[in-house]
Amino acid sequence: MSKILLHSISQLYQVSDSQEIFKAGENMQHTCLKENAYLIIENEHIIEIGNMADLGERQKENLAESIDCTGRIVLPGFVDSHTHLVFPKTREEEYLFKIQGMTYEEIAQKGGGILNSARAVTHISEEELLLSSLERCKNVLKTGTTTLEIKSGYGLSLAGELKLLRVANALKKHTSQTIKTTFLGAHAIPLAYKSQREKYIDLVCEEMIPQVAEENLADFIDVFCETGFFTQAETEKILLKGAEYHLPAKIHVNQLDFSGGVQLGTRMGAISVDHLERIADEDIFSLQERQKNSPNDCTVPTLLPSCSFFLRDPYAPARKLIAAGLPVCLATDYNPGSSPSGSMAFVMSLACTYMRMLPTEALSAMTLNGAFALRLSEKIGSIEVGKQADIIITKPLQHLARIPYSFGENLIERVICKGV
Ligand SMILES: [Zn+2]
C-alpha cells in the first residue's frame, strides 16, 4: 500500500466536487477552488481532501511520502482527448513550404501531408514506432498530460492502420498514462485509390473496421469529414459500419470549410465533433438540441487552437459556444502536419489569448470535459474522492492565470499519474 499526502496546498482546483460528468456554459468557470488544503492518495486513487485546519495525526500515519505544496497550485492532470501521437516522423520540410506560403490543401495535393506520413508508415517497424511514440508520451507527461486519446490514420492500408493501432495499444504497457485509441482509417484517400475512392471506403468498411474490432484495437471511430477528404455521405456510411461494431463516433469537422459534419455528428450521436474553426448557427443549434435530448450523452465540441496557430487559421468561436451553454473541450491535435506540439499548457495560452476563454474555463475544458469527450469522466478529469490520482503540482505560483500568461514556460513541478 502506498499512501501519499499533499499538504499546505495554496490553491487546489478540483474542477468539480459534485461528481459532475462535464461542465457546460457559464458553469465552466466554476472550478471548485479550495485554499490551504490537503489531499491524500492511496495507491491509484484520491481518498481524502480537506482543509489544513482539519489535518490530524491520523491522516499522517503510514505515509510513503509527504509533499509540501506551499505556494503551489494543484490541478487535475490534463486530458488530451484528440491526438495523432503515433506517427512515423516529423515533417519539418513541409513547414518550410508553409513558411513560403503554401496551404495545407496545396501540400496535400503534392503528395505531402497525411500521404507523406502514410508512405513512411509502410517502412517503419512497430518497434521503432513504439519507441518514438513512447518518447512523445513521456514528454507530454512531464508537461501535465496524464490521459491521451491516440488516433490511427497514417496507415491508409489494412496493415498500416493495424500497425498504428497495435503500437497505440502497446504504449499502455509502457506508460502510466491512461490511453484511449481511435480508428481513423478514413483520414485521407490514398493515392492508389484517387480515381476509385469508393473502393477505399469499401476497404475501410469491409476489411479494416471488422479487423480492428476483431483485435479489439480501438475504443472509437473517426472520419476526416472535410472538403477534399470525405463527404458527409461517405462519413455516414463509415460511421454506421463502426456503430455495427460498437465503435462510438468522433469526427473531424469544419476545419477547412463548412462540412456539414456537425449536424451529421449530432444526428448520429457522435461523442465529439472536433476542430470547428468554422461553425454556423445551425451547427450550434444542433449541438444544443443534442444536449437537451441526451444530457448525459451529448456531443462535445472539441477545439484545437494549436492547429489554428500553426496553420494561421481562424480560431474556433469558443465564447459563442460557451454562451450557447455547451461543454467546450480543448485538446492539442498533436500530429506532424498541423499541430506538431503536444503541449496542453500552450493550448491553454492560445485558448485564453485568442479565444478569450478565462483560465478557469480553459481548465475545465482540458480536464473534466476532455475526460467526458472520452467518456471517462466518472474516473478522471477532476480532483474528487474516489477518482484516479492524476494530479499536477505547479512551481510556486500565485494565480492560475500565470500558466497561460507565461506561454512557453513550463511551470509544472511534478506530475502524479495513477498515484505515482
Ligand atoms: Zn486531428
List each distinct ligand once.
zinc ion
Please indicate the percent range of residues in DSSP E strands (runs of 2 or more).
Answer: 15-25%
Based on CA inertia axes, which overall geometry fits? globular
* Secondary structure: number of strands: 15
Q: Averaged pLDDT, please?
A: 95
Provide the CATH architecture of the largest domain.
Alpha-Beta Barrel
Largest beta sheet, briefly?
Answer: 8 strands, parallel
Structural category: alpha/beta
Oligomerization: single chain
CATH superfamily of the largest domain: Metal-dependent hydrolases
Strand arrangement, major sheet: 6-7-8-9-10-11-12-13
Level-1 CATH class name of the largest domain: Alpha Beta
Molecular structure report:
This protein is of the alpha/beta class. The protein has 2 domains: 3-76 and 383-416, Urease, subunit C, domain 1 (Roll), CATH 2.30.40.10; 78-372, TIM Barrel (Alpha-Beta Barrel), CATH 3.20.20.140. Helices cover 35% and strands 21% of the residues. The chain is built from 15 helices and 15 strands. It has helices at 92-99, 104-109, 114-123, 126-142, 158-170, 197-214, 232-244, 261-267, 281-293, 305-311, 318-323, 344-354, 359-366, 368-372, 402-405, and strands at 3-13, 33-42, 45-51, 65-68, 72-76, 78-80, 145-151, 178-186, 220-225, 249-253, 272-275, 300-303, 329-330, 391-396, 412-416. Helix 4 (126-142) crosses helix 5, helix 5 runs parallel beside helix 6 (197-214) and helix 6 packs parallel to helix 7 (232-244). The relative contact order is 0.17. The mean pLDDT is 95.
